[in-house]
Write a sequence for this structure.
């Protein structure tokens, strides 16, 4: 780095040293001023959020943090792999190289073994550490200071982009102790923070959608905050938390730009959240066709202010997306050598070849995607599911399939949940009719949202059939549709609105209490599963 | 006012459901040897003995559940012994002959202090072989030993506390367990703290909903 030295730094004369010191001091002073100005702007921006939104944020954060205490270490799905990615990144400064080598550090492996992790997951009658003697054995094992630096071998998530893991590296290093469980506790708080940001984004989305109904904003946001599957994921180190936030922010930004105008600043904001989403989890790519359509719609609506201006804003969004994504692709291929621009992530999800020979056909794929959400039609020859996935996977999974999908509520909860859904769906339909005038103008942007949702549902099915036919195991989990969690808030508000304007806030409040009770019983279920 | 009335009713219903749920009495777990009864992992011949190391007996265990198959025949007399590192019996259990195969609960009687590193032995007093539920796996120092010969696998032992308890009566024990196996700064204060935080969250959410009605 010699070439980076200025002449004065190179000569090292006293005069030059004095000038250098002044220069550094000036620079620090300017940087401090810039940071203070930026913080003032952030504070001003935060003050513009309604108080109710800030309260929803705080409630969601504390609720997710409580879940982080209730769920034992590494018992959130794939948390061992997500933690392993963060630890490798934090320790080495680069994402895991993948390949056939041990995926976890000696420290993580030892912790997992002494937490009885491998004998607890998938075995609902087995408990975590229940006795002081077992706890002492765990502490003694960790006190041997096994290495936190692993080899970065392949896990199901090492082919994902590194944004979430880079963010998690901050609490990893800020942890006051190098103890793995202390680090995990701090890292879980970041997930809780991301979940709280998602809830705030849902609040702002509802504010944009129903500007004349302030009661609706906290109702929809709190229904999301207390949703137990959402909160369960927020309890752990899990990359989905950033995906949910980026997807919800994308819906919010697009809706804002549609209602208030596609300004340069909003074009940058849309580009930034889309880039963050693409660098958070590859699943986000499924939303891109709909996002592209929405950007074209916004550009077309901005043509009134000049064709050049509109196209410039579209280009701004695209450039803001393209630069970080392209940089990531280049780093993957040329610097980190992770097996291609997407680290094998897209190839892994789209590989049609089956281990026993043959390949997944387009016909099979389309049948599978249809049957994943809708009843099988008479001309569909492939029957992939013993039970109807709309109920068994999506509804029941959303009501709660917890842990590593190894414990559930009693069966009657899911049966009654379906009847409740019928009632709420009927009310929501009524609510939609009631508010139709207010939201009619937003049909075009909601058509784009529908394309985004269809992209996600299609991608789940596309990947799902390949995984299922290759491994024999089901792929789909309810959490995969949670990038659409903003529409859970919309659904709850519409259901409340279904009983009319006078009773809507009361029913909305009751639905939030139902969500709170749902969350509470999910927590007691979790306590009985692991500690009872 | 409508919101306030409906919220009061909804919260009262939720709390009533919680009280009913917490008051349900059932046998409660005391721990296990971390082997699930997913296969029949051992066969013990008539008058044979299976011993298994690393069988820590929890202090509050009053009975142990074992999956036993007898190929349709009535069970013979079964005796379970927990031995300390020196080979002294610290606890035992007995199931008289004549029982049926299945998931069986054997009461445990203590005659000494069970320490970590105990060994558990099950003696089949009947004339016919028994199959015991557990997990397979390669032979290792913790594997089961049948009539002195080490076998791959481990018998599953799931311990239960005495009698039937409600969650209320288990609460002090839950509070203690909740602080284990987590970051060192957590402890028995963690569950009460989480409960208080949850109460605060509920109050904040309800206040927000009531204020929302006013706006």
């Amino acid at each position: 780095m010699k070439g980076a030295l200025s002449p004065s730094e190179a000569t090292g004369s006293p005069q030059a040293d004095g000038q250098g010191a002044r220069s550094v001091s000036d620079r620090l002073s300017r940087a401090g001023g810039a940071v203070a100005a930026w913080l003032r702007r952030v504070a001003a921006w935060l003050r513009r959020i309604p108080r109710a939104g800030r309260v929803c944020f705080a409630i969601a954060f504390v609720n997710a943090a409580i879940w982080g205490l209730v769920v034992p270490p590494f018992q959130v799905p794939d948390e061992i792999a997500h933690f392993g990615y963060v630890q490798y990144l934090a320790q080495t400064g680069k994402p895991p190289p993948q390949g056939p080598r041990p995926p976890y550090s000696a420290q993580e492996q030892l912790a997992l073994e002494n937490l009885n992790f491998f004998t607890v997951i998938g075995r609902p009658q087995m408990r975590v550490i229940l006795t002081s003697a077992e706890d002492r054995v765990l502490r003694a094992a960790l006190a041997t200071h096994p290495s936190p630096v692993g080899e970065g071998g392949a896990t199901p998530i090492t082919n994902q982009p590194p944004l979430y893991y880079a963010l998690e590296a901050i609490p990893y290093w800020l942890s006051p102790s190098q103890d793995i469980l202390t680090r995990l506790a701090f890292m879980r708080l970041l997930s809780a923070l991301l979940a709280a940001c998602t809830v705030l984004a849902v609040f702002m989305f509802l504010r944009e959608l129903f500007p004349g109904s302030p009661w609706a904003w906290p109702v929809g946001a709190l229904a999301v905050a207390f949703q137990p599957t959402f909160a369960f994921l927020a309890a752990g180190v899990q990359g989905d938390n950033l995906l949910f936030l980026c997807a919800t922010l994308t819906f919010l930004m697009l809706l804002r730009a549609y209602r208030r105008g596609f300004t340069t600043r909003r074009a940058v904001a849309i580009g930034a959240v889309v880039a963050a989403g693409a660098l958070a989890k590859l699943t986000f790519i499924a939303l891109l066709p709909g996002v592209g359509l929405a950007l074209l719609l916004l550009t077309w609506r901005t043509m009134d202010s000049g064709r050049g201006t509109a196209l410039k804003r579209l280009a701004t969004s695209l450039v803001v997306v393209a630069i970080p994504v392209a940089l990531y692709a280049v780093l993957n291929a040329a610097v980190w050598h992770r097996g291609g621009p997407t680290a094998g992530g897209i190839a892994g999800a789209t590989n049609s070849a089956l281990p026993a020979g043959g390949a997944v056909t387009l016909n099979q794929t389309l049948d599978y995607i249809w049957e994943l959400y809708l009843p099988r039609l008479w001309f569909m020859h492939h029957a992939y599911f013993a039970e109807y996935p709309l109920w068994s996977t999506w509804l029941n999974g959303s009501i709660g399939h917890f842990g590593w999908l190894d414990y559930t509520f009693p069966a009657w909860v899911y049966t009654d949940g379906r009847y409740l859904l019928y009632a709420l769906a009927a009310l929501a339909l009524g609510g939609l009719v009631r508010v139709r005038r207010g939201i009619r103008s937003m049909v075009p942007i909601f058509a784009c949202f529908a394309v985004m949702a269809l992209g996600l549902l299609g991608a789940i099915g596309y990947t799902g059939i390949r995984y299922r036919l290759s491994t024999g195991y089901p792929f789909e989990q309810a959490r995969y549709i949670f990038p659409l969690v903003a529409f859970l808030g919309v659904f709850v508000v519409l259901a409340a609105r279904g009983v009319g304007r006078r009773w809507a806030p009361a029913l909305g409040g009751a639905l939030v209490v139902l969500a709170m009770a749902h969350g509470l019983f999910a927590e007691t279920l979790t306590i009985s599963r692991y500690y009872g | 006012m409508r919101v306030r009335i409906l919220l009061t009713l909804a919260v009262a219903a939720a709390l009533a459901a919680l009280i009913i749920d917490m008051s349900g009495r059932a046998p409660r777990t005391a721990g296990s040897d971390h082997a699930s009864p997913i296969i029949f992992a051992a066969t013990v011949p008539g008058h044979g003995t299976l011993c298994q190391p690393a069988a820590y007996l929890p202090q509050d265990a009053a009975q142990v559940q074992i999956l036993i198959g007898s190929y349709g025949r009535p069970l013979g007399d079964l005796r379970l012994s927990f031995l300390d590192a020196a080979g002294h019996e610290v606890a035992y259990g007995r199931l008289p002959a004549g029982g049926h195969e299945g998931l069986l609960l054997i009461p445990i009687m203590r005659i000494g202090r069970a320490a970590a590193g105990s060994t558990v032995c099950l003696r089949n007093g009947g004339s016919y072989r028994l199959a015991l539920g557990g997990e397979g796996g390669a032979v290792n120092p913790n594997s089961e030993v049948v009539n002195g010969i080490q076998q791959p696998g481990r018998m599953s032992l799931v311990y239960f506390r005495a009698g039937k308890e409600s969650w209320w009566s288990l609460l002090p024990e839950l509070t203690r367990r909740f602080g284990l196996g987590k970051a060192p700064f957590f402890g028995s204060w963690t569950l009460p703290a989480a409960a208080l935080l949850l109460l605060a969250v509920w109050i904040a959410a309800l206040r927000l909903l009531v204020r929302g009605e006013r706006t």
User: Anything to note?
Assistant: Chain B has two domains: 2-26+166-214, 29-160.
